[in-house]
Design a protein that fits this description.
- The longest helix is centred in the last third of the chain and has 20 residues, at about 370-390.
- The chain has 13 helices and 15 strands.
- It is an alpha/beta fold.
- Helix 2 runs parallel beside helix 3 and helix 7 (about 180-190) packs parallel to helix 10.
- A nine-stranded mixed beta sheet has the order 14-13-12-11-7-10-9-8-15. A six-stranded parallel beta sheet has the order 3-2-1-4-5-6, sandwiched between helices.
- The structure holds nicotinamide-adenine-dinucleotide.
- Nicotinamide-adenine-dinucleotide binds next to helix 2 and strand 2.
- Keywords: Signal.
- It comes from Algoriphagus taiwanensis.
Length: about 425
């Protein structure tokens, strides 16, 4: 691998590629296999999830070769390469120093070398990476959330249309869609087993996630990129990054997206310099066109009660759902309508890859997850807009929002739009004052 340790070298690495653009074979059903009979995979964003998704691709058992990797940081790419190559060896890991790309631009070259791409950088980059993958005609697995502001969502929605027109499979890591309890219960709800769904409650309440503290010598851009969870241009706040899973379930159950959001939120506990700008709690109601209301709650309070699940009420009964394979439907007298068997359920992170790659090796076009993922991500963003502004927001107002959080320039020495004050603390939203759209 090239020595990319200096900050300046981080930026220029896109010039290092030696592989040329490959003609996308995917548009021709049955013509997927590379000459060596392997599907070529590239991973963009080689952190925990990008690395894990490569494992899951290999675990499908189909002939897959990892041919390119791209990450903003050398050390993250190195760690991922080590983990993948140690586990799967040279037969599956055909990455060479010339197909490892470090910096902001390398994703284009990595995508060009592959038939299938995994997009798992922080969500602020997803619109850019997804647009490029679609432009290059690739099959796509991308992680949620798919953007961090309405400007990004509109890009993803446009690229989702292009992906459909090109018949590119797109699976998004909202893995509850690939989890049996959710599939079985929501099929029954859509069949009318609970009557009309009039309300529900969705929760992601837990103690929070990692903090990557500022290190000496980091530029502001590098610091924010490392500690990405706490900056909205990268993360979208935890209502977007995590709670999208539960909000997406509400949309799936309702088979609709809300028309209105109102709520409250703030920073009660997590107020340090390394906590950037995000809130530590949001509480909202989302109203749907039929008048039904979903209560949404997410918080990062260490030591408080944890709860990550979804409940819904209908005219005939109610349901309890969770990622722990729960699916308990009862009528209003307490009689069972359906109880999901929690034993021996497939891992949904594996299942989404099993289903995607099974389609890919057969040359089938089966998956178009991007539009729903964009609209569920937008629902979460609308929630953040409502808690940050303290205003009641309609779907159309939120989706047409013009505040673009993305930096004007991507460079290690360039300034993100949000900067700390002289004491090192970041400004954050003040409901009633902050303009969000
Ligand atoms: N589906 C799920 O349940 C689930 C679980 C965890 C994470 N995720 C999602 O996966 C994504 C990644 O999360 P993670 O936990 O792996 O974070 P991570 O910090 O471990 O990994 C992100 C990687 O992306 C790299 N990166 C940053 N900017 C980049 C750029 N412009 N181009 C290429 N690489 C870039 C980082 O250096 C890092 O290595 C997030 O969107 C997250 O929400 C989904």
């Amino acid at each position: 691998m090239k020595n990319l340790n200096s900050r300046r070298d981080f930026i220029k690495t896109s010039a290092l590629v030696t592989g040329g653009m490959l003609a996308p074979s995917f548009l021709v059903p049955g013509a997927y296999a590379a000459p060596d009979n392997h599907l070529k995979l590239a991973v963009i964003g080689c952190g925990g999830r990008g690395t894990g998704a490569v494992f899951q691709a290999f675990e499908t058992g189909h002939p897959i070769q990892l041919v390119a990797m791209a990450d903003a940081f050398q050390d993250r790419l190195d760690n991922s390469y080590k983990a993948i190559s140690t586990k799967y060896g040279a037969e599956k890991v055909a990455v060479t120093p010339d197909t490892m790309f470090v910096g902001f631009e390398g994703y284009k070259q990595a995508i060009a070398l592959a038939d299938v791409v995994i997009l798992a950088a922080p969500p602020g980059f997803r619109p850019q990476h997804f647009e490029e993958a679609v432009k290059q005609g690739k099959q796509i697995f991308m992680e949620k959330p798919v953007a961090t502001d309405a400007v990004g969502i509109r890009k993803v929605l446009a690229a989702a249309e292009e992906a459909k027109a090109k018949k590119l499979n797109v699976v998004v890591g909202l893995q509850r869609h690939y989890q049996n309890n959710y599939r079985e219960v929501i099929k029954r709800i859509h069949n009318g087993d609970l009557g009309e769904i009039t309300g529900g409650q969705v929760y992601w309440n837990d103690g929070g996630v990692w903090v990557r503290e500022r290190q000496p010598g980091q530029t502001e851009m590098e610091y924010q990129m490392r500690n990405w969870y706490y900056f909205n241009w990268l993360c979208g706040d935890h209502i977007v990054e995590q709670h999208v899973h539960n909000i997406d379930i509400a949309n799936w159950v309702k088979n609709a997206y809300p028309i209105k959001a109102e709520g409250t939120g703030g920073r009660q506990i997590r107020t340090g310099k390394d906590h950037g700008e995000i809130f530590d709690h949001h509480v909202l109601t989302f109203t749907y066109a039929d008048g039904s209301v979903i209560h949404s709650e997410c918080r990062h309070f260490p030591g408080a009660a944890n709860r990550v699940d979804e409940t819904f009420q209908g005219t005939k009964g109610k349901v309890y759902l969770s990622a722990g394979n729960h699916g308990i439907m009862t009528d209003w007298k307490g009689n069972s309508i359906y109880t999901h068997d929690r034993e021996n359920q497939p891992n949904p992170y594996q299942q989404e890859h099993d289903e995607l790659w099974a389609a890919l090796v057969k040359g089938e076009y089966k998956f178009a997850d991007a539009e729903n993922a964009a609209k569920s991500t937008m629902t979460s963003i609308m929630g953040r807009y409502a808690t940050y502004s303290g205003k009641v927001l309609t779907w159309d107002e939120a989706l047409n929002g013009s505040v673009d959080l993305f930096p004007e320039e991507l460079d290690w020495d360039a300034q993100p739009k949000l900067l700390p004050n002289a004491d090192g603390y970041y400004p954050h939203a003040i409901p009633g004052k902050t303009q969000v759209i």
